[in-house]
Amino acid sequence: MMAPVVGSGAWPAWTASVPKRRSSGGVVIVVHSEGTVDRGGRCRRPGQRASACRRRGPWGRLAAAMEPDTTLLMVGVSGVRGRVGEGLTPEVVAYFAAAFGAYLRERGGARVVVGRDSRVSGPMVRHAALAGLQSVGCEVIDVGLVPTPTVQVAVRTLGAAGGLALTASHNPVEWNALKFIGPEGIFLDPAEHEAFAALRRRGFARARWDELGAVHPEPGAVTAHLERILRLPFLDVEGLRRRAVRVVVDAVRGAGAVVLRPLLEALGCRFEILHEEPDGRFPRDPEPRRENLGELGARVRAVGAEVGFALDPDGDRLALVDADGQPVGEDGTLALALPVVLRRQPGPVVVNLSTSQVVEAAATPFGVPVLRAPVGEVHVARRMQQEGAPIGGEGNGGVIVPAAHYGRDAAVAAALILQRLLEEGRPLRALVEALGRFVILKDKAPRPAVPWAAVAERLRAEARAPEVDLQDGVRLAWPAERRWVHLRPSNTEPIVRLIAEAPTEPAARALLEQARAWMTAAAGAVAG
Fold this sequence. Notes:
Blueprint: E1 36-37, E2 43-44, H1 50-54, E3 74-76, E4 79-83, H2 90-106, E5 111-116, H3 122-134, E6 139-145, H4 148-157, E7 162-166, E8 175-181, H5 190-202, E9 215-217, H6 221-230, H7 237-243, E10 246-250, H8 257-266, E11 270-274, H9 294-303, E12 307-311, E13 318-321, H10 330-342, E14 349-352, H11 358-363, E15 370-373, H12 377-387, E16 391-394, E17 398-400, H13 410-424, H14 428-433, E18 439-446, H15 452-463, E19 467-469, E20 474-478, E21 483-489, E22 495-502, H16 505-527
Parallel strand pairs: 5-6, 5-7, 6-9, 10-11, 10-12, 14-15, 14-16
Antiparallel strand pairs: 1-2, 3-4, 4-8, 7-8, 12-13, 16-17, 18-22, 19-20, 20-21, 21-22
Helix pairs in contact: 2-3, 2-5, 4-6, 6-8, 8-13, 10-13, 15-16
């Protein structure tokens, strides 16, 4: 961005109270070297009448905002997230929402869907986001407090240019975030994020008072989402109603039950929901990991339920508990759902590089390949589009079924698991045991102080693995021995994440330590 100047040599009096320097959580009023700012906030080049600028329309005017300080934020492909009141302030939210609206308008669209999860900060973040979008002339469709997948579905069904999901997903209660969704209902990919970042660097225009956008409440988004699930060709809705599966749900006081309750009712389940009130005061660690599912497991045993469903706060991930109250593991959700889809629609399965090989075990009987993409929902979704995959997802309990939409969806996953129980007539634990035993261990190590690309090539030589994947870090695999390890540099910390899987815990631990040694040796060789 060009250095801000004032064409007349002084700021107009009306800007006296406006900050002109970058400050934490603040925005900056600027004027580019091409012109000045008149009292109405419109662009005027030297010697040009204000009316001449106005005739160019609102998008010909100069920007009135620069990007705020992002030191305390995480800004990347997954959106913009931070702790509320520290990095994430109303000013920051309004700025990024406005920038996203301007980005969509540059591409010819003005309609934007906005939805939020149940976080305590949600109402504040929503108001700021709506104001930001209105300030650039967007038509805002407010779907209210809903799961993130509902926002993604609404973008498609309402023909919007994009969507804004206000959620920090599994992060602790003090966090919130903005997630940016494109017109296909898929989160922005790296190329789209770069275009969005470029717009922020060069600045964007605000609308005049008579060009501001409006907000339209849309109460039907949950119903539209539910209908898409119930129309899935993989579900025997009448059979499930007769079966009346007994279920316990832990909704963690998030947004997921907004869709899951009516879905379970429609499928005739006998169920109860723990922590259903969507007030954002999470009663446990919001991530649905094995160690956080004790209460759910105890309740499943107490009432004799067949399955327990654990949600994350924005309803895009599902973890399972069996009838004995034992967690299945997040990787098991996709593996158990696969057969329901593949029996009716055979095709490739797409997962990320860190997903358990239990997915291969589930896919093998159907003779279909399992393809791997970089970590991140958008990478999996885009690869699924390219390959025509009927199902895919990630090893964190995220299941993507394009027949519903191209996003992870806990409600879709729950419906498929219920269908699997109907079809198999066996307990969930028996289905899990049929997949075989795999142990995943995770660790981290300091990132080498040498170029990672060079380290990756050395790692390939050091390990001599039969399969090497360099799409996202380094994934080394020994399929015949059913073991693999993934070394992935963090995008936000100076560390490398290590994930290893093998049939036994000692084998997985040994592979993890071997990978650490290979990385150290590779970095030393690169450093010379």
